[in-house]
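STRUCTURE:
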């Protein structure tokens, strides 16, 4: 926050402020970090300077965030592939305020629904329907923006969950009607926000028996983007136990395993524990006996819809062949949403029967076009859609689906 304050103070006179925020940040003792940022900016620039922000689809929208900003523009996609477009939209919004073309007002409604991230993706089901309805509202004269927020239930703050924000040109009544309508529609579809997943054993068995691939096994609970360790082992354990063939694991961050592979060298024998080293919430380490097939610096370039053209590093990387399974182990924790991760070490997921990916939803942007089928796995982990695995202390209750007997 000090960096933002210093930048604003350095500029002196400012026409407007445009921020790129997430919306679900929680700091110890501060559940609404973005609200605090907006308050600090507002205190610096005063009540008449436009303050506008883009927000992630997973923002937990609070009253302070809505009150302190002139406009909030949420991503319309999950996987998030429209950040650039939302930034342009927000920038034009600031310009229209400065030209005195509009006098924006906003209204938010938060129904008592806090979905896990997996069933809240925008490409199917209830969120797709709600997004399409929001787009229709945006065609109305005087309706500036209608944002649908899936929220981030794992933040465990009071306002976590679905939110609908409508912004109009000086028509608060219409904004209220739009947000209320969308919230009501979401409530009617609330039972679609429950994830249906297979156990690790059943998921692996299903993939092995599938007539063709790639069958993508999504270890959705071990998504580093949602706070998980990334080195979960339960699906890998099943792949080994069931003697899966023509499979690839993308990826398991394990510096110790990488060091062991480097000592063995390409073609050398690998016999060590993999994964399960960050914590005790994602499965115990698995002993892997195999051969080192590839050693790499872990550098790759994103070619998929997310972060296109961005050069990334997963740290030093090795591929361990264990029976019919290629296991990519690397040094850095990251979410391997792009098939280029595997291609950078000579493995094309398109030509594998079984592909295990550690991601909740973002992987779909690249993998849906090439997968014969996607199976979401109910393994352990901090981003599990199975909310019964967690103890919630701060989120408002009752709320669906944590509570099934909810009236609204």
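SEQUENCE:
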């Amino acid at each position: 926050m000090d960096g933002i304050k210093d930048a604003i103070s350095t500029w002196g006179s400012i026409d407007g402020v445009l921020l790129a925020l997430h919306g679900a940040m929680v700091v110890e003792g501060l559940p609404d970090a973005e609200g605090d940022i907006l308050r600090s900016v507002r205190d610096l620039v005063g009540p008449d300077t436009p303050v506008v922000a883009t927000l992630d689809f997973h923002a937990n929208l609070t009253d302070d965030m809505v009150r302190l900003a002139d406009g909030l523009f949420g991503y319309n996609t999950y996987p998030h592939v429209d950040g650039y477009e939302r930034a342009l939209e927000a920038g034009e919004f600031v310009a229209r305020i400065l030209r005195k073309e509009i006098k924006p007002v906003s209204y938010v409604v938060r129904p008592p629904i806090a979905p896990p991230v997996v069933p809240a993706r925008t490409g199917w089901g209830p969120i797709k329907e709600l997004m399409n309805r929001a787009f229709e509202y945006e065609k109305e004269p005087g309706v500036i923006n209608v944002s649908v927020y899936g929220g981030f239930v794992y933040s465990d703050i009071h306002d976590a969950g679905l939110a609908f924000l409508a912004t109009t040109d000086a028509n608060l009544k219409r904004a209220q009607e739009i947000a209320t309508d969308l919230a009501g529609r979401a409530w009617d579809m609330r039972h679609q926000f429950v994830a249906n997943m297979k156990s690790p054993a059943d998921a692996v068995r299903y993939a092995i028996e599938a007539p063709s691939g790639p069958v993508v096994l999504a270890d959705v609970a071990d998504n580093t983007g949602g706070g998980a360790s990334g080195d979960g082992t339960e699906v890998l354990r099943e792949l080994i136990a069931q003697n899966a063939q023509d499979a690839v694991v993308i990826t398991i961050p394990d510096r110790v395993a990488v060091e062991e592979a480097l000592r063995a060298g390409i073609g050398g024998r690998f016999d060590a524990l993999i994964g399960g080293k960050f914590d005790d919430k994602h499965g115990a380490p698995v002993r892997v006996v195999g051969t080192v097939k590839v050693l790499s610096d872990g550098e790759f370039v994103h070619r998929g819809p997310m972060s296109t053209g961005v050069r990334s590093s997963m740290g030093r990387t090795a591929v361990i062949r264990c029976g019919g399974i290629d296991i990519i182990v690397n040094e850095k924790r990251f979410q391997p949403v792009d098939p280029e991760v595997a291609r950078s070490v000579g493995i094309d997921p398109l030509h594998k029967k079984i592909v295990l990916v550690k991601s909740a939803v973002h992987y779909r942007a690249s993998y849906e076009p090439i997968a014969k089928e996607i199976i979401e796995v109910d393994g352990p982990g901090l981003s599990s859609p199975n909310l019964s695995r967690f103890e919630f202390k701060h989120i408002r209750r009752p709320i669906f689906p944590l509570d099934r007997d909810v009236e609204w």
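REMARK: The chain has two domains: 2-193, 200-384.
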